[in-house]
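Entry:
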Amino acid sequence: MTRRVPNRSRRSWARFALFLLVLFPLVPSRLAAADLFPGYPEAVQAQAIRVVEAAGPGKGEALEREVRSLRRAMFENAILSMNAVPDRIFERAAREGWKRGSYESMRAVTRVAPLSVPLWSWLAWEDVKRFRLEEFFFDVEGLWGALRQYGPGLLGHAVWLVLFASASACWFVIWVSLNLLLRAVPALTSDVARLLKGLPRPEILASGIVLAGFAVPVACGVGIAVAAVFWIALSTAYLRRGELVIGGISILLLVGVFLCGGFLEAIHPVAATARQGGWLGGEGYFYRGGSVSGDAGQGPLTGPKWERMARFARARAEMEGGNLRTAETLWTERIGEGEDLADAYNNRGIVRVRLGRPEEGLADFEAAASLSPAGGRAQWNAYQVYLQEFRLEQAARIQPVAWAGIRGLVPFDYRAEEMTHGELVAAPLRAGDVWRTLFAVREEGFREAPRSAFLGLFFRPVPGEWVMAFLAAGLAWAVLWKLLSLKIWRSSVCRSCGAGTLVVGSREAIDICNACRAQVGKGIRGGEERELRGLSILLHRRYVRACSVLVPGAGVLWAGKEFQAMLYGILLSLSAGLFTVSWSAGRLAGGLIGDMQTDIWRAALGVFAVLWLAGAAWGWRSFENLQLYHNVSGERL
C-alpha cells in the first residue's frame, strides 16, 4: 500500500520562529530497563515490540503495516502516544550501526508517538541538515502541538530554556566585563602610576598592580559573577555613557541568573519525577501511581491547576492500562467537580462504549460536543457510534464537521479516510496554559535561589543570602564612582592615538584628544616630542589590535560603537551558551537527545568560531577607520 502524504495545507507557518530549531526539553529517552513498554496492556506491548523489530533501512512497507496495527491497538485502549517507541528504535539503530539511516523509520512512528517531544525535535534538526524546508515546518508544528499537550515535555522545555538563558547571560557578562576592563586599563594604569610617583619605575609597578586586579580574583577562585562585578566597578570611572549602560545591564543579568538558579532548584524534584514517568505520565509515559498531591505538590508546581493535571493524568493512565471501571469512576468524579468537562465527557464516553454501553457513551459525546463545538474529537466519536448503530442520517449530518475536526488536530496525524474500524479518539491533557503558571513570580524561586548550584558556580564566596545585596552594592558603587569621577582629576586616554592626559570628567567628557580632533596626525613638532607621539600611537594600535583578537569586539568599543558592539556580544554569547548547554546534555543524555545535542554543540561551536573571527576583524577594521578619520594612521610609524 502506498503511503499517503499528510494534508499539510492547514499549517500556520507564521507563528513559528526559527529559534525553535534548538529548543527542546530534557525529557528522558529511557523507561524501565526490564520492560520495554511497562504499564500497557499485553497486546499493545507485543505490537510495539514488533514495530521496533520491523524498523530499519529499506523496510518502509513492513514498518508501515506494523505501525497501523499498533495504531489500532492503541485506539482500542484510548492510548494517544507511546513515546518510548522512537527511543527504542533509535537505541536499536545505534546498536546495529544504522543510526544515520533511521530517518524514515523515525518519521513513520510519529503516528504512534505524536507526543514525543524529543522525536519531533530530532526530526526538525534532521530536516535542517537535509535542507527539507517543508518537512521542517511540519515537524516544528508537531513539536509545538506536543508541547501544548504533554506536561513533562513543557517542564523539560522550560528547564532547557532557563539553562540556555543562564549560560548565555553568563557568557555575555564575561564578555562585557573583560571588554570594559581592557578599555579602562591604560587610563587606570596612568592613575595608579600617578599615585606611585615617588617610587622608582612607577609605570612598571602600576602595570603590575592593575594586572593583579585582574588576576587575583581568578587565582583566588571566586565565581564568574563576583569577578565580573569587581572588574566592571573597577572600570567605571573611565568609561563612556554607552559603555556604562552595557555594564549596568550585565549586573542586572546576573540578578536574573541568580533567580534562574532558584527556579531550577525548585523545579528539580518535579522534573526528576517526570524523567521516571511519574508526573503526568498518562500522556505518553505510563503513570506509576502514588499520591496525586505528592506528584503535583513538589517544588513550584502547587495549587489547583497542577492537582487538576495530575488527576487528569491518573484517569488517562487507567484508560491506557485497560482498567475501564476505575477510569469511568475517575472521569465521573472529574465531571462532578466541573473540571475539564468537554474532555472528561469525551473520555468517559470512550470508556462506556468499551464497556458495552454505546448509548451512554453517545450521550457523553454529544454533551462534550455541545460544550466544545470546535473540539473535533467528540464529533468524530459520535460519528463513529452513529455508524456502528446504523444511524446513518445522524452520521451524514455531522460527517463534514467530524472529518474536518480531527484533521486539524496537531500533532496527531488523523486521516479520516483510513479510520474505518470504529476508532474512538481520546482527549489529551491540554498543557498549553502551563507556561504562564510555570514562569510566574513565585516565592519558592526566591527561597531556593540561595541554595541553588548556581551559587557555588557563579557567586562564590558570597553567601547566598547576601548575593542580591552584593549585586545591588556593585551597581551602586559603579554609579557613585562615576559621579565622583566627574569632580576629581583622573587620567583619560585618547581612543584614537592613545595619548594620556589629566581631565575632570564634568569639564571634559570627550575622550578624543585635541590633536586628534585637529587631525594633525604626527605633525605636531619635530624632534623627541614627535617621536614620542609616534611611539605612543604605535603601542596604542598594537594594544587595541591585541584586545580585538583576545576579546572580539574590543576594537568596536574603542571606535565608539557601543550598542553595535553590544548586539555583537549578544550573538556571540548566545552561540557560546548554546554550545555550553548542548555539550553537557550531549555527553550525558544519550539516545535521541544526546545525538541531536551532539550535532547542535558542534554547529554552535562552528558559529562561535566564525563570530569570534568576524568580531576580531570587525574590531580591527573599526579602529583603523577611527584612526584614519583623525589622521593618525596615514603614514608608516
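The first strand starts at residue 489 and ends at 493.
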